[in-house]
Amino acid sequence: MADPDRIFGIPEIDQPLWTALPPGWLSVLSGTSGSGAPLLAKQFAHAGVGQIPVLFYTNYERTEDVRKAFDDFGWDPGEVRIVNLADEYFERVLVRGLDIAQAREGGVSLDDLVEVRPQDRRPLTPFSLTNRMLSDLAKIDSPFRMIVDSVDFFLEVMEPHELTTVARQIRHRCQTIGGHALLTAHSVAHERSVYALLQDLADLVFDLSAEPRADHYEHTLSIQKVANRPDLTRLWRAELGEYGWHVEDRSSAPH
Q: pTM score > 0.90 for this model?
């Protein structure tokens, strides 16, 4: 059973931050392509398994790839409910659009119309990514852990203000029943104003970056916001090991 006070399962980060947080909180993690932020999001999910349900919403990876990443670092994907919102959106929205476009392009024959009897027709129900996700949360009435990797997909299919509304609803649910949520952003350049609003809403803000150093990349995990404790913000040198990310003090790191 997991410890109840784990954020990433990294003691140097978990221990000082946990006591500064309210019972329910929202966090944001940014990281450009190649930084390793998606893996850190999975580590956040793994750190929460135990007595509370863990929901992992992926918006760009295949479900089997998410499970493999868990397996590669000794984390049990069976303890996490993985939901592929991108696949659901494709099947419920994009495929329907393709069918409509094909019908318009090729025309619908009389035989096609005759073949479909009224009793065979299924009603067209609108699909909302946000409603799909929030309906899962509404069914939970006890502490939980939730990961959305990443919010970039939402910005492709909805207006920016809708994303911030969803973030507010998630945060409210966390505060109400003691949940812990992590939203990841892989690219913040194209919607800086939206990302700034997400940072304002969040109790915790992290960034994982990768900078070239001769023949390798050096990763830095920065704690940019901790509720009302600016004294806890910090930079850590991050290293990837057999069981996931770990950190060390940058002052002791070789240059």
A: no
Inter-residue contact 159 to 130 (CB < 8 Å) = no
The whole-angstrom distance between residue 1's C-alpha and the CA centroid of its chain comes to 23
Question: What value, to the nearest 5°, has the Cα angle with vertex 93 and ends 91 and 95?
Answer: 55
Backbone φ, ψ for residue 249 (5° rounding): -60, 130
CATH topology classification for 11-252: Rossmann fold (3.40.50)
pLDDT tens digits in sequence order for the chain, 255 residues long: 445 689 999 999 999 999 999 999 999 999 988 899 999 999 999 999 987 999 999 999 999 999 999 999 999 999 999 999 989 888 877 555 455 455 556 565 545 545 555 554 444 456 788 888 889 989 999 999 999 999 998 888 888 888 999 999 999 999 999 999 999 998 766 678 889 999 999 999 999 999 999 999 999 999 999 999 999 999 999 999 999 999 998 755 554
Contact 57, 146 (CB under 8 A): yes
